[in-house]
Amino acid sequence: MMIVFIDSENNLVYDITVMENKQSTTLTKELLASVLKEQSSAFMKRDLGVRREILPQINNFLQAPYILVVTGLRRVGKSTLLAQIAREYLKDEYYFVNFEDERLLNFQVQDFDLLHETLISLFGEKTTFLFDEIQNVPQWERFVRRLHDQGFKFIVTGSNASLLSQELGTRLTGRSVRVELFPFSFREFLQFRKVTLPDMTVLTTTEKGLFLKLAGDYLRWGGIPDALKYPGLDIHKTLYDDVLYRDIAARYQIDNVRSLKELAFYLVSNISSPVSFNKLKELLKLGSVNTVKNYVDYLENSWLFFIANKYAYSVKEQQIAAKKVYSIDTGLIQSVGFSFSKNIGKLMENAIFLDLRRKGQDIHYYKTERDFEVDFFLPKENAFIQVAQNFDRAETRERELRALVEAAAEHQNAELTVITESDRETIVNKNTTIKIVPLYEWLLR
Fold first, then answer.
1. How far apart are CA 98 and CA 238, in angstroms?
2. What's residue 19's pLDDT?
3. Vertex 146 angle, CA 143 and 151, to 5°
4. Average pLDDT per consecutive 10 residues, the chain (445 residues; last block may be shorter)
5. Which of 87, 359, 373, 410 is the most buried (most CB within 10 A)?
């Protein structure tokens, strides 16, 4: 079935084929063999790029009898990560299949046996399957579970967290582990720029200036590999439109695409600011709060945005309080969002959120009893983090420290940090110690 979306503002037409649950009449063994040979050849020659920091964690999972599921945004590097896993850990003992290939568009669950048979005839018997963008095949988990129970190993990638969660939570419960792949961290960004890290404990003036510039570049360009490789192309905008039209509008059969676009644009233009679902409903005339919640869920599940809740002991209070929204990439914010001026502080806050999220931490924002706000609270670590671009202004300094001191009074023995663009110091006030750390140093900690 073909669905056509017309974006009159940008003069773009998206024709999107939605897979129907019917047996393909065009998928033959000959066609499949041709596709698989081409894919295998291209995969073997793939540029490995920057070695991802998540590889050691993945290697640990490979030693355990689990299906490994790698999720993340489109074009974030999942296919390249599969190639790194294959070269580093699997030698030649694997099959690779990319289900994003348009020639496999009508592939159905009943075609998996033909796929396995064709793979054996082409490459011999192997025990590990690498399946890229697996969510494109309905009920893929049936085949994976059957062969996993027979002792085969699977590493699969997907770009939709919700669909994968549904499938993992039904037939693959207890058989799978999931890892998230993000855009480049600052350390990976430096590897891409071929920067050798000096002794970070003692930096020369020149080295400090260099890292200030590199941190600024990281905020400006973000960490999406293709956007860094091809800065002359509008990779961020293309990616953003692909997610909205193909991953959300087509998959969830949304008729009111204009409202989805307006909501996404509002969010990407108001990163790190509190937003209320009720106010969004009124502002964008979206009909109901449930519609807003659903759209936000779709945007989250497709990895464009993350939601941070206010910290509260009551789950109900967390649910009704305003949310803070963060983007998957600071470069995407700059390319797609709208702002009267470059707000470096908000980009810093977004980069810090991503770094915390990349490490799997539970992240909230915090309001003290007197309603002073702290940007991040990590309950498990009992740590508060405040973000301030310039800490030398007396007004900023007083505001940020006051919020931290009040939060510390409400949570004894909390770790307190202010992350700035370039300042470094330690403030001791009675029993309270606050560390002031430059962004580049904190991201490399």
1. 21
2. 43
3. 120
4. 52 50 65 97 95 95 92 94 96 94 93 97 97 92 94 92 69 86 98 92 91 96 96 94 92 90 95 92 89 93 94 85 95 84 88 95 95 96 95 87 94 96 88 94 94
5. 373
What is the DSSP annotation of 120-139? Answer: HHHH---SEEEEESGGGSTT
Q: Where are the domains of the chain?
A: 2-180, 225-443
DSSP state letters, 279-330: HHHHHHT-S-HHHHHHHHHHHHHTTSEEEEEEP-SSHHHHHHSPEEEEES-H
Radius of gyration of the chain (CA): 24
Q: Give the pairing of strands 323-327 and 305-310.
A: antiparallel
Q: Please state the separation of Cα 35 from the chain's center in Å.
A: 29
CA–CA dist 136, 368 (Å, integer) = 45
pLDDT recorded at residue 20: 44
The size of the chain, in residues, is 445
- Please give the model's pTM, rounded to 2 decimal places: 0.90
Pick the CATH number of 2-180 from 3.40.50.300, 3.40.50.2000, 3.30.1050.10, 3.40.640.10: 3.40.50.300
In which residue are the tokens 């020659």 written?
A: 45
